């Protein structure tokens, strides 16, 4: 079972943003930028392009909704999207509020307190 399945099942805590029948969104614990969010299909499949078409397109649609709420919440030029998956073998989309290119590098990280994560998650939820 992946760490993301444990999060989806409520066995590991997260800063949850949204959930529907098939998808789940929460804040990345080691963000490239404030608001860095992960959108995950509940189905545990490692690689994005191994998802069936319905799940793949559904993940994009779900991510688009979350991105709109992120854009409203976090001052930024735009929301960047990337898929990596080298750390957690459970398909997920990274949504990252961007002002500069280094925020897409995964070497530039920001620190947020537990309280800041909690407030941010609530603000994004309120903008959904
Ligand atoms: P990757 O699999 O390379 O796309 O990276 C996995 C991402 O998941 C990284 O950005 C991690 O910071 C993030 N991550 C790993 N464990 C957790 C967790 N328990 N809660 C939130 N984010 C996590």
UniProtKB/TrEMBL annotation:
It comes from the Bacteria. GO terms for biological process: nucleotide metabolic process. The active site is at residue 92. GO terms for molecular function: catalytic activity. PROSITE patterns: HIT_2 (PS51084). A motif (Histidine triad motif) lies at residues 90-94. Residues 3-106 form the HIT domain. InterPro entries: Histidine_triad_HIT, HIT-like, HIT-like_sf. PANTHER family: ADENOSINE 5'-MONOPHOSPHORAMIDASE HNT1, HIT FAMILY PROTEIN 1. This is HIT family protein. It comes from Flavobacterium alvei.
């Amino acid at each position: 079972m992946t760490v993301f399945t444990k999060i989806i099942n409520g066995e590991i805590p997260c800063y949850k943003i949204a959930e529907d029948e098939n998808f789940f969104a929460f804040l990345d614990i080691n963000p490239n930028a404030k608001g860095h969010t992960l959108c995950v299909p509940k189905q545990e499949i490692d690689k994005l392009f191994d998802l069936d078409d319905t799940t793949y397109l559904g993940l994009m649609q779900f991510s688009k909704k979350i991105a709109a709420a992120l854009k409203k919440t976090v001052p930024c030029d735009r929301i960047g999207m990337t898929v990596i998956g080298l750390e957690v073998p459970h398909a997920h989309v990274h949504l990252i509020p961007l002002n500069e290119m280094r925020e897409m590098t995964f070497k530039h990280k920001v620190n947020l307190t537990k309280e800041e994560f909690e407030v941010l998650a609530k603000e994004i939820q309120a903008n959904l």
